């Protein structure tokens, strides 16, 4: 049987960083220049690219058996990413007030990403050197999941509020309590694919298809939550939810096709198969 | 905000995170085997068990702080609210004049966490006693360090113990103590850093940033434990020094980000 | 928020305790339908040791995290509906819980298919009828749990005056209910129902791991049979644990904060902990006396 070549994780990192940031910037740019909020769904596109990056990094760390289960890694990544992201976005807002130029806001997500990568590097070093976990992929893996968490937070936050600046995040995401689902169903698409596909016959393409499917579910939920923010222009929320729903149906059927392609026996019903003695 | 206050907030965050990390080591975690009555302890994963007790501690501390700032305790501690609003709560003068309410919030966190831990352990023991019909014993020690009961005769052959004996329950209360105190201290540090002045948005942000740092320390501690631990009588408990170093460094770095954020000003434009 | 009198607060705390009890029981039953979390490690192991099965291998990240995301999503959507469309809170909580539990059901199906596909070399097949018949039960019980937790989180914020926004409270209580179900209810499933053919009154020796019951009372064992058994002991006890937690924490805060400038509530809490520890000691001595040792001392 020919071995399917896996996508290299640096390629996925590039897609996640560049694609994620471009999508978030585009959403903000279109929303502010056209003075609408219909392009909030582009934030979700950026988050999905970052989720692909993060889910693959989780895969590579956890294949070595870290002993405490996969969900903890997702929570660790988001715990690391949250404070660094908030600081980065505040730097963006601060630069706008200091320089007076509204283009300084775009420095915010870049600062958030860099701070998260630094945070991930420090935690990865602690895990390998101080806690002696000795997992080869841990150092780079931690950097990647922290960076992915940062872009996921910013991307989905743009889906809810239409922009990524610090004030929107505090006013619309934290004060309503939406930060709780942002954290949880932002982390789930990153950790669920590998956890759900755990086993000796795990396959990267199938795992990443599941990551896309799970992130589209989250997109629909965030679209519904954005109703509280876009109370005067509910069309924006409707766009996010409808596009998410159509894409989700497609992704779920693609996942089911991959399951069938893997050759597992699918029975409509029946008794247990007879084992060879 | 003057530099001394910022340093004190940084210390608060570091010590809070460290307490959380240390507390996780006291909690008797049986993990998946405990759910099959194969191991001593509570049958949940390390990270999430510590977080469950920290969660109730945080809810309790939030309740008490709200009572002190705008509720029934406002007249008893009049200086706390204004100090939190103008950011002087963690200055030297702020701490000395508000030491009682600060202590009250920390103890509220401790009590909340301890209630959660004891109910988790004891209700699980009720199930072990009546549904599985096994004695509550540990296989790691021959005699219970606190009650002196003989353990090894009451352990099913082939298992590592079942249920949560008294030494593990006491150990879990210590875990709740450290975890609840750490969580409440983190929450106080963020509120003192200026989030207290932002109303509901500030309280929510302070609470969730606490949850974030709690998660980081809890997961690092569970990586140190690698699986299950029965409490302070378990040989794995000797690994605590590694966790102290790891959690201190991690919490310190996150504290640096936090005071950078506080320095730039947490208010919305 | 409402300015609460003592009577209103106590009544709300009682209602919250009742909601929490229902939520705890529904949570444990749902995790039994799906064989989630701890006991699932045995279901995962079984094909590798040659024991094929018809259980629902739902590996969605462990109960605390799963219930955290279920409850906070339900609460957040309810908040959005209340704020934007001015929907009545009760209906909003129900709709939010419904949407969140549908999402939860989709995660359950992908987990079942994913885990079994990654084990295909052991010959474990995917049974579509298990998927079709069990998933609706999972969604239903998840709905009960999400709505109950959303309701008492909302009451905690709105009447009792807890300052955190109620989606954050729902997330924290979701973690707590998941921890309670995992610690209490899952043991009934894992130690008793999964290994029902082993003798009663002992733990599970390590050599027996993975050799789960394959045949049921009539036909093959499905996960639906598991819930019918655990509802008699494990699920109500889980509900009792969560109800006690919610009620004790609210009760001591409402009644005793007025004494000693707030320290009364702390003393009350510590006394409560002491009572539970003493009760545990009495229980421990009772089990040792009633069940006796497995072997006599050599000396």
Describe the model:
Helix content of chain A is 73%, strand content 1%. Chain A is mainly α and 277 residues long. Chain A has one domain. In chain A, helix 1 packs parallel to helix 5 (138-161) and helix 3 packs antiparallel against helix 4 (107-130). By secondary structure, chain B is an all-alpha fold. Chain B has one domain (3-264). In chain B, 66% of the residues lie in helices and 1% in strands. Chain B is built from 9 helices and 2 strands. The mean pLDDT of chain B is 89. With 299 residues, chain C is mostly helical. In chain C, 69% of the residues lie in helices and 1% in strands. Chain C contains 9 helices and 1 strand, in the order ααααβααααα. Chain C starts with 5 loop residues before the first helix and ends in an 8-residue tail after the last helix. Classes of the chains: A mainly alpha (277), B mainly alpha (269), C mainly alpha (299). Chains in contact: A-B, A-C, B-C. The A-B interface holds A 66-69, 71-73, 75-76, 78-80, 82-84, 86-87, 90-91, 93-94, 97, 115, 119, 122-123, 126-127, 130-133, 166-167, 170-171, 174-175, 177, 179-180, 183 and B 45-48, 198-201, 204-205, 208-209, 211-216, 219-220, 222-227, 242-243, 245-246, 249-250, 253-254, 257-258, 260-261, 264-266, 268-269.
Order of helices and strands of chain A: HHHHHHHHHE
- How would you spell out the order of helices and strands of chain C? HHHHEHHHHH
Q: Which geometry of chain A do the CA atoms define? A: globular
User: What does the largest sheet of chain A look like?
Assistant: none
- Domain count of chain A: the total is 1
Alpha-beta classification of chain A: mainly alpha
**Number of extended strands of chain A:** 1
The two chains with the largest interface, and their residue counts, are: B-C, 85 and 85 residues
């Amino acid at each position: 049987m020919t071995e399917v070549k896996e996508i290299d994780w640096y390629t996925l990192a590039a897609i996640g960083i560049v694609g994620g940031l471009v999508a978030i910037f585009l959403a903000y740019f279109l929303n502010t220049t056209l003075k609408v909020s219909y392009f909030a769904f582009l934030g979700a596109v950026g988050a999905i690219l970052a989720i692909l990056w993060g889910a693959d990094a989780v895969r590579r760390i956890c294949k070595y058996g870290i002993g405490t289960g996969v969900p903890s890694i997702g929570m660790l990544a988001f715990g690391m990413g949250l404070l660094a992201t908030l600081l980065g976005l505040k730097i963006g807002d601060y630069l706008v007030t200091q320089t007076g130029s509204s283009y300084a806001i775009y420095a915010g997500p870049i600062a958030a990403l860099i701070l998260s990568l630094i945070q991930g590097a420090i935690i990865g070093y602690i895990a390998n050197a101080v806690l002696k976990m000795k997992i080869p992929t841990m150092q780079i893996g931690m950097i990647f999941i922290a960076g992915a968490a940062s872009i996921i937070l910013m991307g989905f936050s743009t889906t809810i509020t239409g922009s990524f600046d610090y004030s929107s995040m505090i006013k619309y995401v934290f004060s309503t309590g939406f930060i709780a689902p942002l954290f949880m169903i932002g982390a789930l698409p990153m950790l669920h694919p590998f956890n759900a596909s755990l086993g000796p016959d795990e396959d990267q393409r199938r795992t990443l298809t599941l990551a896309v499917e799970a992130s589209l579910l989250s997109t629909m939920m965030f679209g519904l939550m954005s109703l509280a923010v876009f109370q005067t222009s509910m069309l924006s929320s409707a766009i996010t939810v409808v596009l998410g729903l159509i894409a989700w149906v497609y992704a779920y059927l693609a996942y089911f096709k991959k399951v069938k392609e893997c050759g597992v026996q699918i029975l409509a019903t029946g008794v247990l198969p007879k084992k060879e003695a | 905000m003057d530099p001394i206050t910022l340093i004190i907030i940084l210390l608060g965050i570091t010590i809070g995170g460290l307490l959380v990390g240390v507390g996780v080591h006291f909690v008797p975690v049986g993990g998946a085997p405990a759910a099959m009555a194969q191991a001593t302890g509570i049958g949940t994963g390390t990270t999430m068990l510590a977080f469950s007790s920290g969660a109730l501690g945080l809810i309790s501390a939030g309740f008490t702080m709200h009572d002190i700032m705008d509720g029934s305790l406002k007249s008893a501690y009049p200086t706390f609210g204004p100090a939190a609003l103008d950011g002087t709560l963690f200055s030297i003068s702020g701490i000395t004049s508000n030491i009682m309410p600060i202590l009250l919030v920390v103890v509220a966190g401790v009590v909340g966490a301890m209630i959660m831990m004891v109910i988790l352990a004891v209700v699980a023991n009720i199930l072990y006693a009546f549904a599985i019909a096994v004695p509550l014993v540990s296989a790691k020690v021959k005699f219970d360090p606190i009650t002196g009961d003989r353990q090894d005769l009451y352990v099913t052959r082939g298992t590592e113990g079942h249920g949560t004996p008294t030494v593990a329950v006491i150990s879990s209360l210590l875990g709740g103590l450290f975890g609840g105190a750490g969580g409440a201290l983190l929450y106080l540090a963020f509120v003192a850093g200026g989030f207290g002045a932002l109303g509901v948005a500030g309280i929510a942000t302070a609470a969730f940033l606490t949850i974030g740092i709690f998660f980081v320390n809890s997961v690092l501690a569970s990586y140190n434990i690698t699986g299950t631990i029965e409490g302070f009588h378990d040989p794995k408990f000797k690994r605590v020094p590694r966790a102290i170093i790891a959690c201190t460094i991690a919490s310190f770095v996150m504290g640096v980000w936090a005071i950078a954020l506080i320095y730039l000003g947490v208010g919305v434009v | 928020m409402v300015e609460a009198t003592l009577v209103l607060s106590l009544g709300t705390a009682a209602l919250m305790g009742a909601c929490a009890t229902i939520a705890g029981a529904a949570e444990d039953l749902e995790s039994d339908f799906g064989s989630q979390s701890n006991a699932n490690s045995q279901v995962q192991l079984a094909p590798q040791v040659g024991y094929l099965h018809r259980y629902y291998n739902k590996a969605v990240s462990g109960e605390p995290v799963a219930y955290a995301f279920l409850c906070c999503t339900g609460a957040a959507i309810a908040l959005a509906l209340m704020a934007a469309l001015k929907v009545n809170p009760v209906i909003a909580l129900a709709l939010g819980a419904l949407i969140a539990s549908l999402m939860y059901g989709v995660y359950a199906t992908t987990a079942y298919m994913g885990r079994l596909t990654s084990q295909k070399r052991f010959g474990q097949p995917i049974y579509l009828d298990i998927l079709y018949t069990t998933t609706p039960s999972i969604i239903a019980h998840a709905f009960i749990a999400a709505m109950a937790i959303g309701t008492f989180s909302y009451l905690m914020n709105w009447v009792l005056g807890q300052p955190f926004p109620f989606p954050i409270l729902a997330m924290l209580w979701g973690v707590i209910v998941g921890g309670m179900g995992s610690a209490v209810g899952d043991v009934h499933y894992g130690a008793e129902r999964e290994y029902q053919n082993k003798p009663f009154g002992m733990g599970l020796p390590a050599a027996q791991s993975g050799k789960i019951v394959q045949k049921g009372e009539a036909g093959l064992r499905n996960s639906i049979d598991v819930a019918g058994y655990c509802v008699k002991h494990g699920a109500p006890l889980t509900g009792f644990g969560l109800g006690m937690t919610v009620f004790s924490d609210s009760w001591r805060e409402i009644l005793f904060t007025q004494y000693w400038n707030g320290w009364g509530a702390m003393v009350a809490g510590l006394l409560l902990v002491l009572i539970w520890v003493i009760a545990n000691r009495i229980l421990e001595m009772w089990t040792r006396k009633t069940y006796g040792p497995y072997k006599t001392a050599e000396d």
